[in-house]
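Trying the structure run again after the queue cleared.
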Amino acid sequence: MMELVVATRNPGKVKEIEHKLAALPVRVLSLADCGHSGEAPETETTFAANAEQKARYYLAVTGRACLADDSGLEVDALRGAPGVYSARYAGENASDADNNRKLLAALADVPAAKRTARFRCSLALITPDGKTFRADGAVEGLILDKTRGTGGFGYDPLFFLPELDKTMAELSADEKNRISHRGRALDELATVLAGEMRCGLA
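Done. Tokens:
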């Protein structure tokens, strides 16, 4: 069985990944399981490069295969911002509320039809023998002019899904995991890994 370290201290994210990879011979470990508390650098300019940077960092410190992700919000009217700076859009120690306020201010004069956006996620899995697997997922939506819903985190209360007539913050956890950018990227990665494992990866 392959041991896979997930580059997060978020137990909810670990459970989501365990669920998505449940059909594979994989034992999912958190950073806490490995006794590691350090922070990986995130100095790259794309989601994919940041994910790979984190995966390589935690592979080096744990000696185990590592899965890392980087994700964020891209707003078309802002030329893709906040992008890789989504978590710190309003500053290094910004709260979700701070980031949402800055986003609303930046879009104050943008009409509803032009507030198109997407959540994007890039995954990178690197094994001790140097094999690298990548997957990407995205979900399209619109940015509202005020928050709706109390679930989720980050920009979820502003991110509206027209086909569901809900924001991300109004979805149940199961609904969100099913359609989210990370959920879609994990589905893609699970398919790739299944094929590789049949060929003798693990």
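The mean pLDDT is 93. Worth checking whether this holds up in the mutant runs.
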